[in-house]
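Note to self: the last two entries modelled the partners one at a time, which told us nothing about the interface. This time every component goes in together.
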Amino acid sequence: MTNRRINRRTMLKGLGSVTVGLPLLEEMLVSSAMAAEQATVPVRAFNVFFGLGIPAPLQSEGFRSVLEPLKPLSKKLLIMRNVDQVRCDESGINAHFDGASGAFTAEPPDGEAKSGGPSIDQVIRKTYYPKGLPTGMVPTLIGGTFFRRSRVSRYVHSYNDDGTVAATMQEKPRELFDRVFGTVMLADGETDARKQRLKRSVLDSVVSQYRFYTGQNSPLGAKSRARIADHLDRIREFEQRAYAMKHKAPNAPDLPPRSKLLHGGEADPGGQGIDITLKELTDEWRLMADLYALAIQMDRVRFGSVTFLAAGERIRLTGDYLYNDKKVFEFDDANQHNASGDKGCSHEWWHKFDEKKQNTQLRAHAHLKMREIAYFLHLLDGPDAQEANGKSILENSMITISTESGDGRHNNVKRELSGVFHAITGANGRFKTGQILDIGAEGLDVYNTMLDTMGASRRIGPAKREGKIIDAIRA
Amino acid sequence: MKASMWLLLVTGLLWFNLSESQTLISGEIVPSVVDEKADQEKSASARLPKNEQLAKRSTAGLQALYDFQSASGEIVKDRSGVGRPVDLRIRSLNAVRRTKGSLEVRKPTIIRSEKPASKIIQAVRKTGEVSIEAWVQPAKANQSGPARIVTISRGSTERNITLGQDGKKYDIRLWTTETSPNGLPSVTSPQNAFDTKLTHVVYTRDRTGRTRIYLNGDQVLEEAVQGSTLNWHGSFSIALANEFSNNRPWLGTYHLVAIYNRDLLAHEVEQHYLAGPRVDAAVNDQATVAANPNAQLFNQGVAPLLAKHCLECHGPSSKKGKLDLARNSAALAGGENGPAIVPGELDESLLWVYVDSDEMPKDRPPLSNEEKSILKRWIEGGATWSTENIDPSTYAYGSGDTGIWLRRLTVPEYVATVKNSLGVDISDVADDILPKDLRADGFSNTSYNLSVDLKHVEAYARLAEIIVDRLDVKAFARRFSKSQKLTDKDMRGLISKMGKWLLRGPLEDHEITVFRGISTTVASAGGNFEEAVSFIIEAMLQSPRFIYRIENQRGDGTAWPVGDYELASRLSYIIWGSPPDEQLMRAADNGELYDRNGVKQQIQRMLKDARAVERSAQFVYEWLNLARLDNLRPNPDRFPNWDDQLANDMRDETLAFFKEIAWEQNRPLTDLLNAQLTFASPRLADHYGLKSKTRNAKGTDLKQIDLSSVPARGGLLTQGSVLTVGGDEASMVTRGLFVLKDILRGAVSDPPPCVDTTPIPTKPGLTQRGIAEQRIADSQCGGCHSKFEPLAFGLEKFDGIGVYHEQDDHGNGLRDDGEILFPGDAEPVAYESSAELMDRLAGSDRVRQCMTWKVTQFAIGRPLTPADASILESIDKAAQDGGGTYASLITAIVLSELVQMTPTEPIE
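The predicted structure of the combined assembly is written out below.
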């Protein structure tokens, strides 16, 4: 795949001086509600997840080692060490899974496809937009490049209050593009005004029925009503795109290229892992990162999560690893393990981690992950991401970066789910940045401190638990 | 009373001793007048025409039951066992006389609920049907007003329903959308039928408005009371013996009052009359469970914490310190240090002593304060066990608070629903247009995970257009109405009937109005009938009632019986994966699904339909995750013969095998583990080394193969579709875990501390079996690995893609003997060969129970929780009594509380 960088400028070029670019852009740019909000910096919250984690001993090496790619952004990040997610452990459950579920929720999973509670981005979304986001916005965007699946919290990192996923995962760049910028097309490409009016009448009746089931006289319980309400929101979005956005732009940018990587069940053949080159992996991820960042820059998205490789990811990576144009390592997992199938995957480097040894391969993989996370963060800090208050989106948003594990060996919960890497951005001056702090606290307290600082009154975790404010992270 | 019924009753009585209190007159047992002079301590009801061996009371649809069992106090208990009890308070005890089984109102008073009768009102609103049954003896014939016997009302002019006495008539007022708020016009019994003797009075009304009054088992009136009960007021309370305005007193004696949200059928009324007014036991087990909070505490708190913290070391097989905390009797007996649990004696219970001091769990985090508090309260409260054994796998996912989720149709269900409702096949486009349903908790129909996104909404809209394009709209509309006019009356009639069919239950007025709006828009745009109906169908296809299985979920926080159309849908989606057919809808129309026998008849009929077979195949596909085969990519250097077709053949083999065992031969489901036959294409047979057995087959055709002379194969676990779970290396860990979790419903903890989990390769002198045995011998690994790796020992001769070998790639000889430890058992059982392993699995209760759990989970679309465990035991037993077949299991599931009842959330 050729990585053709898509950025805000490319998109806006499509607008020209005469007509509208992408169908939604016009509506978005002239929306008075949105225009009013542009004067101030909107509240945003995103979770950025990377799989397999950074063993705690390597985190202590600061920017000298695997965290090196984050160094250029260090003044805009608060790196938190010694954050403990042990409470997320559930006996009998794979720690990749419950550790990943704990990221951004501080709760163990509740079943294979549910978290034990909401993620912090969603708590903030509900706080600031209890009745939904402005028209035309995607309420929550979840995207990522990953292959391992089975259990959902391995790769989804935005959860509703009831622990269900907050939106559908978009794992192909083109799908994410469609989700953010696309229009929807009815089967026969309606253009006839009369027929459109009749179709609207059908849709009106559908909306009316969904409204009934979310209303006072609904026979449904709370969770079911919430689901129907969610469905109703999607219908309204559909309505907006199907009928309000009729402009087509002859000079709009092309759709992103189709993904050449494996997705869906094919990407996880029986847990055996897949062969992939570094170029294939990073080309797709960077396109995904470009599109996700673009969606933020265009203010189409304010909440959500993005994943670079799933928890417990199983890939057999090959290719030269360059950093600052210099080859620093050659990935060749299967041969370096001298094994095939799952035994030949990079995952195994984490299981073999031994702090008395060099852990060369693990360091290279972790360094690569930081390089790619940094790529995404830079997109929110560049010239296309400057805001009215003179700061970048990166600086103005609450972006939380975390992972599933502090170690990777399934041999000690305290080791594996303690010292889970966390980094956050300043959220427009709310949190300290430019430091590496040893927090020495539970993830739950860190998250609740973040929520409190962001102005959310909702607290996550058990209601009866006495929380602790981690004042050290507040600006 | 029919003569034959009396004859039957008298004949029946020959088998039993007449009790002293029964009255025999001219060879007949008749209701007797309560003898005022009789011993007051004797139950009056004992002299009534009761013969329960002949006449059982029906409990379907029962909402409230007052049988006056308490002889003292001011409370009259609702003993229906359904929902939250609506108990009544007697305002003036001086005005009444209570005996066990009766309440005599001697002076004006009121006996009323203190809160609204919400559960009754909601239930009647839901069904549109109601019955009031009363065993009463009026004190005199000249009471009027009418004098209120039973009323759900607010005062003398506002009511939902009232049964009263108006002189020599019983008078029933019912508020509907067509009657006045005072329930007028009322219906009354004929004057000549009244008597001041003990009388069985029953009022029934079905949703079509057909109303009947029965006196002493005989129908004395039939009339129509039009309208719907959807307008019933939710804030009205229930009262006996007076109106809430206290100016309509009734004097007399109550023996029983029961209210139903359905119309009791004539034969049921007759049965109830014969059964008499006495109800011997709580109608519902819930009452028993609720009566013992200590048992509830065990079920909800203690068993989960013992499973989580204690059973790894103190289970039946580990028994450290000779203590087994998984079994009631063993736990009470204690271990080598003494008694672990002494009911009521905290300080003598070593379990508490060790846990409280954090000495236990050893080398593990201590119990939280909340957990300790639960344990403490339970021991202090009597340490009641609600089950004989604790099964840790039941608690593997915690308490399992799954909430009440409505179910979206899965992709296969959506396709089947369209096909069976409209006769349109969209299977060619649906998979491309609809997003895939994602797997959660082992199945892709798990309701909490059936969320929607923009793509779904777009897909439903597009598919609605495609469906209507493929439909002969006019012909379809003719099924419901011959008229093709766009007039209001005709369209509303059509919408009502067509909507009931497509949306799987009657439409309410506001829904008809919404759809009618579409046809008026079409008419105003110059459109015709066909166009209007097309758009209405499009709208119905996008309705939440089409896309979801909408059911009532609101009530009082307890489980309520499901409504008849809801039950019809539950039956059809569980058995067929598709909507109710016309017969099932008719049964719902006629109230036949309230009758257990009616449900059984429907199940039997439905299980003979090809859709039942198809649905069972979906279960197998999900249970064994056969979709996995589409994505398998074994290392081509090692397995050059693998291709997609071989994977397809393996999947087809398993599905054909299941069909043969479960349907064609109707064998117990456990036979799936060791049946000596399979199905294979020539290619697959060759792969298995059975080429000679498919000589006449061609291409991908499957041929049944007799395996009675092939001891190594036979049963699911020897099929490629399952053997491939172990990956290229035929991992003992993965295969063993599959057997443990998906065949034996076992649970296992994380790897213990300080173990390198990196897989070890085989080499000369070291087989997978050898590696596994090393792990099992390791003191730190063996505790768990001994629970599942030996389950795969019998499969070692099958490589990663299911080919049989006597030696591995290094020339090491392979073995298939071993031993198996069934979860919950104390000792493992040895087996000599793969065939013996399969026989042991097939003969295992645990395997049978696992299948019960798996089929049930698929049926109800949610993970099972500890609270379901006792119901699953009953299902398993009922299925076993029926031969352990798929059909018997499905029957038991559908007849169980999990399907017949629905949890509710309290209405705020």
